[in-house]
Specification:
Two copies of one chain form a homodimer. Chain A starts with a helix and ends in a 7-residue tail after the last helix. The first copy, chain A, has a three-stranded antiparallel beta sheet. Chain A is elongated, with a radius of gyration of 20 Å. The first copy, chain A, contains five helices and three strands, in the order ααβααββα. In chain A, α1 runs antiparallel to α4. Chain A is α+β, with helices and mostly antiparallel strands. Chain B binds a DNA duplex through α4.
DNA sequence: TCTTACGGTAAGTGTTGACTTACGGTAAGT
DNA sequence: ACTTACCGTAAGTCAACACTTACCGTAAGA
């Protein structure tokens, strides 16, 4: 059920930009906020959401709060998505067999 | 960039329930609306969003509008997610090597 | 044609949530 | 101790959106 929070978190464009920036490596809040069109407190709030969704993790280095991608939430999301992927492939296969009934294999 | 719409579409809980129901096979709008705590027009609106996101496809059977899962949007989402998956694994591997420096393998 | 089942669209409402500014709290330098 | 840099939280505002009811079009059966 945790994938719900992850999807909600990644639905926001600003949060996606933060998450994509984190893909290049761990970053403190200030670095993340620089270059984004929103204020630093906004970034803090977004990071909180991402963290609660299990998508990022926090690590303190003195006064700095360094964030990085958390594989946990990512894995849950992938697992959930793969269910549909398998179902979709089965449906596609069935569709092909149904539509192209004129030619039997072997 | 299409994955953005897909994520936005799947962020809504009601839309997720519709999408998950479609996993068991194609369904007309009425069947989808039955069992959900919202009205049928609401389901129609949700299906429109899912369709524009490339997550479902529509097929008419007389007066019925039968919806099914569209592999297109699903594939784009998976591809996008896999980028982070790879990055996260790399980071995890680097973290292990950094933290557990005391013991060398082999 | 009249009716019934099916479903998409319009218009309006209420709530959620993304953003802002202002403030408080901790760590490091002088 | 004072200052500066870093960051999280509180409170308030505004727009997006999920939902409703009402309405309109289309397909099939009588």
């Amino acid at each position: 059920m945790a994938y719900g929070n992850a999807l909600t978190a990644l639905a926001d464009p600003t949060r996606r930009r933060i998450f994509e920036r984190l893909r290049k490596g761990p970053r403190p809040v200030g670095k993340l906020a620089a270059g984004l069109p929103v204020s630093r407190p906004a970034v803090s709030q977004h990071l909180k959401v991402l963290k609660e969704a299990g998508l990022v993790q926090e690590e303190r280095e003195g006064a700095r709060h360094v964030y990085s991608i958390d594989p946990k939430g990512l894995g849950q999301l992938r697992a959930w998505l793969d269910q549909f992927w398998d179902s979709a492939l089965d449906a596609f296969r069935a569709e092909v067999e149904r539509t192209a009934g004129k030619e039997n294999s072997k």
